[in-house]
Amino acid sequence: MGIKTYFADPYCSGQRGTNENTNGLLRRYLPKKTSFESLTQVELDDIVREINNRPRKTLNYFTPQEMLKSELLVKGVRFQS
């Protein structure tokens, strides 16, 4: 797909700002010590859908899903939501 990939140094949370922010968003739905055994795939899919449809400042207030869709359209790849 020609996407640039960046790997942060271990234990350097400052290099993973978006990752750390996303972890915080996940904790709103799944606090620490949450048992994942009781969660269904549908519940997990709903959480992912909500997070991916949340506008991000780092994306000029577009959602991650909107950005992915626009990148795939530029490359001529069909996108299903």
Short description:
The chain contains three helices and no strands. It is mostly helical.
* Topology as a string of helices (H) and strands (E): HHH
Mean pLDDT: 87
Number of helices: 3
Structural class, please? mainly alpha
- Give the overall shape, derived from the CA principal axes: globular
The radius of gyration is 15 Å
Helix content: 40-55%
List segments where confidence is low: pLDDT < 50 over at least 5 consecutive residues. Answer: none
Multimeric status of the protein: single chain
Number of strands: 0
Q: Biggest sheet: strands, sense, closure?
A: none
How many structural domains?
1
Q: Hey, roughly how much beta strand do the residues contain? A: under 5%
Distance from first to last alpha carbon: 18 Å
Structure description:
This protein is mainly α and 81 residues long. It has one domain (13-74). It contains three helices and no strands. It has helices spanning 17-29, 41-52, 64-74. The longest helix is centred in the N-terminal third of the chain and has 13 residues, at 17-29.
